[in-house]
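Q: How do we represent a protein-ligand complex in a form that can be generated token by token?
A: Start from the inputs.
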Amino acid sequence: MRKKHKHLYKIFFPPPDKAVTHRALLLAAISDGSTVISGPAVCEDTAATAACLKKLGVKISSSRGRLMVKGAGLRGLRKPSGPLNAGESGTTMRLLAGLLAGQEFDSVLTGKGSLLKRPMDRVTAPLAAMGAGISSAGGRAPLRIHGSRLSGANHKLLIPSAQVKSAILLAALYAEGPTSITERLATRDHTERLLKYLGARISSGGLNFYLRPGRLNARNIKVPGDFSSAAPFITAACLLPGFKLTIKGIGLNPGRTGLITALKAMGARITVKPAAAAPEPQGELIVYGSKLQGIRVRPDEIPAMIDELPLLALAASRAQGSTVISGIGELRHKESDRLKATLALFKTLGLRAEAGQGRLTIKGRQGIFGGGTAETFNDHRIAMAGAVGGLFAEKPVKIKNPGCVKKSYPDFFKDFKKVF
Ligand code: S3P
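Then emit the structure tokens for the protein with shikimate-3-phosphate bound:
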């Protein structure tokens, strides 16, 4: 059971955004001129991106919370001496596949653990349509990329994935002729914002994007706080009566903040104070302990909360009435089968949820949670959800392999203990 707090008013500064840091590194690497990335995410996934870029000849140095990247220009990357290792980072592998497809050299992209099991055909197929020569191991990594002359293409994206969209945009910088992309459902637009910021000829309207190939001009990039890293804090604060949590410097990209929309629809009191910032919107959040009610979540709302669904499911179990979350198919392709992992976490906590036909149904008011050993399936988001569940459990919740949080937020448990 949660320890009693003397002070229920806390302030929290989330760690820097992983998704923005990946893109800042990749785009700075191929820009003309040098970039200072201030406040980059320091975690295993972004370290993998930086290490791959160094192997491609990009000079990256770090000092006092900044990364300095000497841009190689669009055509300045060098053939790596061996395979590039993306570790367990899906964003590193998929975005690099797009970047490497149009180079004048061949390369091999590999990884480890869960990444070797994740689908890569979603990215190799649209790149192949642009003339890329990529072979995979039955749709999985390693990817063998034969640097090719690319041509622009018109893509219709059926799978809602910002990683796939971003890979196509990176390849499109190297293509002959323009590339257009139409998304079925809107996904986070970090890459588009950064491309625009760096002078790329990109235009967008609703679900449509249009990019003409061209060079990028280096500009310093400020990384906001990571919404997904803050999400366990937002969820926990919402569920604790009398709690008030101020979150400073948090990224507020509309493609990421679906958890706020859902919690507000459930009746949560959350104040959002946007600040002027570029290329990424950011600001302050104040989250109050609130009484929640069950809601219906539509498939088109899912991409903006894709990494927060285990947390939303936990919140739903404490709300009044049932919650139905539709369109959750993509959950199966994350660091773990995140649907299976969420159901396993629910079981450990003595909670019930039903999954079927692309929907997750959670009965509300499930009372005090049980406890025990929570399996993480080596998935950082499940470990973090486990910590939130532990606040409401009767018996201690022991998180198996808690080190998996290093993927995105190495200090998660230390920070979480400070706030809750
Ligand atoms: C990410 C996009 C999402 C998300 C992942 C990071 C990104 O994946 O789940 O953690 O950086 O673009 P998909 O694009 O595959 O949905």
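The chain has twelve helices and 22 strands. Residues 19, 91, 161-163, 188, 306-307, 330, 334 surround shikimate-3-phosphate (CB under 6 Å).
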